């Protein structure tokens, strides 16, 4: 394994976002045991709450979740150290998610507070150019506290040639866009996909087969199943509860395991990762594992290990995933990280 492959970067909230971190933290990962050895803060940057990597270049991107949102780019050294490459305004408040399109030519960002999606062309060195588009969502949902306006929460490019999916918690919608490479602008595909009223769709996970996806509803603690067509349409197939634990549940991250057999959902409030089998038409709950904290904000898979960031417990917990059952079991002691919100192996 290359040295750089064994480095994990962790984003989180700094004082700018009400957190206790100082920037982006790096940790060395042992591929055998899964153990993380913290290397300290490698980039001092405000509220880097979500991270993404360029598919080919040693470049890392972070949102800066601020009232005047920014996105920052860093060159990644072999030891995990980060060198700033530049910062751009996202044109909206509180950006909370970003992704690089598969060909590496553009960076797309979801502005939560601004309810908008921003596009940045990437140069041959991976450095973001001037923002080329900003598409604002309009509308609201039935929850007056959380859905008074649009809140774009995730931008999810298609690994193939399908549309970019933008998940909006505030309008209970999934918007579809084609990215015109020549103009670096988003072309909307109508109509938008409407989720259940008040569900608050947060994040979306695609199946490796390209024909299915699942959406975590933050406000109604649901997982909704969709069929994805070759033309980029989404057809709802039903919904299940994200957790069977009593209490207030707020799903956060959702992801499909690498072999496509299991779906994983992190549940804040009850502090669990729920495991669903994907053999049938709807996800079937097979286990719900305690994470050791109350607020698992994000998780990521690396090899046979699952890394869970608990924002309020100031820790990243390591789990080994059983290849046969898909169920994670904790290994070792939690790693102390202040206010972690994103793990990027």
Reported by name, the CATH topology of the domain at 49-194 is Methylamine Dehydrogenase, Chain H
Overall pLDDT confidence: 97
> What is Rg?
19 Å
- Global structural class: mainly beta
Number of strands: 29
Q: What can you see in these coordinates?
A:
- By secondary structure, this protein is mainly beta.
- The chain has a domain at 49-194: Methylamine Dehydrogenase, Chain H.
- It contains no helices and 29 strands.
- It has strands at residues 7-12, 24-29, 36-43, 51-53, 59-64, 70-76, 82-89, 95-100, 106-111, 116-121, 133-136, 152-156, 164-168, 173-180, 185-194, 201-206, 212-217, 222-228, 234-241, 250-256, 262-268, 272-277, 284-290, 296-302, 305-310, 315-321, 328-330, 335-336, 340-344.
- Strands 24, 25, 26, 27 and 28 form a 5-stranded antiparallel β-sheet that branches. A 4-stranded antiparallel β-sheet has the order 3-2-1-29, with no helix packed on it.
- A hairpin with a 4-residue loop joins strand 9 (106-111) and strand 10.
Write the topology of this structure.
Blueprint: E1 7-12, E2 24-29, E3 36-43, E4 51-53, E5 59-64, E6 70-76, E7 82-89, E8 95-100, E9 106-111, E10 116-121, E11 133-136, E12 152-156, E13 164-168, E14 173-180, E15 185-194, E16 201-206, E17 212-217, E18 222-228, E19 234-241, E20 250-256, E21 262-268, E22 272-277, E23 284-290, E24 296-302, E25 305-310, E26 315-321, E27 328-330, E28 335-336, E29 340-344
Antiparallel strand pairs: 1-2, 1-29, 2-3, 4-5, 5-6, 6-7, 8-9, 9-10, 10-11, 12-13, 13-14, 14-15, 16-17, 17-18, 18-19, 20-21, 21-22, 22-23, 24-25, 25-26, 26-27, 26-28
């Amino acid at each position: 394994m290359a040295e750089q492959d064994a480095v994990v970067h962790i984003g989180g909230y700094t004082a700018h976002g009400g957190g206790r971190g100082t920037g982006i933290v790096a940790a060395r990962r042992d591929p055998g045991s899964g153990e993380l050895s913290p290397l300290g803060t490698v980039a001092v940057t405000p509220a880097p709450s979500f991270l993404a990597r360029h598919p080919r270049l040693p470049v890392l991107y972070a949102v800066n979740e601020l009232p005047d949102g920014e996105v920052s780019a860093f060159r990644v050294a072999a030891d995990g150290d980060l060198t700033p490459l530049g910062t751009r305004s996202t044109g909206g408040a509180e950006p909370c998610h970003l992704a690089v399109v598969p060909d590496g030519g553009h960076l797309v960002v979801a502005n939560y507070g601004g309810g908008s999606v921003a596009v940045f062309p990437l140069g041959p060195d991976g450095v973001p150019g001037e923002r080329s588009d900003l598409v604002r969502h309009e509308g609201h949902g039935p929850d007056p506290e959380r859905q008074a306006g649009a809140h774009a929460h995730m931008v999810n490019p298609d690994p193939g040639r399908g549309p970019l999916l933008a998940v909006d918690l505030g309008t209970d919608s999934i918007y579809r866009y084609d990215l015109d490479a020549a103009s670096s602008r988003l072309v909307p595909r109508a109509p938008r996909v409407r989720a259940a009223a008040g569900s608050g769709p947060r994040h979306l996970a695609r199946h490796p087969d390209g024909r299915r996806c699942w959406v975590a509803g933050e406000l109604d603690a649901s997982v909704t199943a969709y069929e994805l067509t070759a033309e980029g349409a989404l057809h709802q197939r039903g919904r299940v509860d994200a957790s069977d634990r009593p209490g207030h549940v707020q799903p956060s991250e959702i992801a499909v395991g690498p072999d496509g057999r299991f779906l994983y959902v992190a549940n804040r409030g009850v502090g669990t990762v729920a495991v669903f089998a994907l053999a049938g038409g709807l996800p079937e709950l097979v286990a719900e594992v305690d994470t050791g904290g109350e607020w698992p904000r994000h998780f990521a898979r690396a090899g046979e290990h699952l890394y869970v960031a608990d924002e309020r417990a100031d820790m990243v917990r390591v789990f080994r995933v059983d290849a046969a059952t898909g169920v994670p079991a904790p290994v070792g002691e939690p790693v102390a990280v202040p206010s972690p919100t994103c793990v990027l192996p």
